[in-house]
Amino acid sequence: MASIKTICIYGAGALGGAIAAKLALGLREQVTVSVVARGGHLEGIRTHGMRVWEAGAASPLVARVTATDDAAELPPQDLVITGLKGHQLGAAVPGLAKLLHAGTRVVMVLNGIPWWYFHRDEQSGHAERQIEELDPNGDLWRSIGPERVIGCVAYQGAEVVNPGEIRLSNNGHFVLGEPSGEATGDIETIAALLKQAGINISISPRIRDEIWSKLMGNAAFNPISALTRALMSDIMSNPALSAMVGQVMNEVKAVAESLGSRLAISVEERLERSRQIGPVRTSMLQDLLAGKALEITPLVGMVVALGRLAGVATPTSSTILALVTQLDRENLRVAG
Ligand SMILES: NC(=O)C1=CN([C@@H]2O[C@H](COP(=O)(O)OP(=O)(O)OC[C@H]3O[C@@H](n4cnc5c(N)ncnc54)[C@H](OP(=O)(O)O)[C@@H]3O)[C@@H](O)[C@H]2O)C=CC1
Ligand SMILES: CC(C)(CO)C(=O)C(=O)O
Questions:
Q1: 218 C-alpha vs ligand 2 centroid, how far in Å?
Q2: First-to-last C-alpha distance (Å) of the chain
Q3: What is the ipTM for the molecules in this complex?
Q4: In this structure, which CATH number among 2.40.50.140, 3.65.10.10, 3.40.50.300, 1.10.1040.10 belongs to the domain 209-335?
Q5: Each residue of 142-182: pLDDT tens digit?
Q6: CA-proximal residue: ligand 2, atom 1 (nearest)
Q7: Ketopantoate reductase C-terminal domain: which residues (predicted)?
Q8: Which residue, by CA, sits nearest to atom 5 of ligand 1?
């Protein structure tokens, strides 16, 4: 990757939209930033620009970006950043494929286990294993290719509060990592560009450890918040629910370690960090309230499935998976 002149954010929702606005404002005249969005949110972006309220800000950032729901209207891009949820990636494959040239890298901002997890994975004994639950028929593996991907873990709370308008709940940061762990020229270039746009970025040589460490929180809080409609702070101040969170965290840690990850953070430290996040509505609760499909498989289903692969029992996660799957089905039925 020589230099980056074009960036498309595909799925410019809460996180993707915030990243797009910062890139468009911070890299003006240096990079062309465009977004793929849809529905009322796309109309909001077109009409008023992408508006982003940073935590504690008195006025929003407003970025004018080229916005479309048809990726074929855009030229191939030097960098694609996906802000889609894990369960939305498969349907976006044809559009994503139109944005690729030989050297395009794709940064995937995702919670949970990503479809490319075992690519260049030397630690689990399952290198290059494809995950059917996350990538049915191998469409992503074949059309995007795991070798293009750079993993991204987001420590940034965000919500689309109105069409085209995003509110950030903290001054967050993002961790990037090549699946191989290498400090490639590509990842250095991308991180430098994101930093230049004012985004807090670090690079990890062990991105899977970062994925699991974040997932200790999401595998617990996201489904429990959807099942109870509680904010994270409410879950933490309820002794029975916070004990359940601890049980899920222990299960996630055990699965991670049995697949060769090393988690520097203990369950107690992870609980303490979650306590500090405060009255945040998780992304899964946001989707439930909006009548949208829930991101269950990457966050909960994979803890159970990879636990099975690794021979680790996950009884609490399995119970939560059954409950939240039924909730999702019923929620979608009611939403029509
Ligand atoms: N929000 C948060 O606080 C955090 C989220 N994350 C993770 O980051 C990832 C992104 O989450 P988040 O930003 O919340 O997601 P959002 O739901 O806010 O954004 C996804 C966007 O992509 C759009 N989209 C989906 N499919 C298509 C398509 N085929 N074409 C065009 N647009 C499409 C969605 O539209 P529509 O709404 O119509 O479906 C939506 O606007 C997830 O994995 C999430 O778990 C991580 C940390 C925090
Ligand atoms: C809970 C939170 C905000 C933690 O960053 C998150 O990752 C999500 O809502 O999916």
A1: 6
A2: 45
A3: 0.98
A4: 1.10.1040.10
A5: 999 999 999 999 999 999 999 999 999 988 999 999 999 99
A6: 282
A7: 207-326
A8: 283
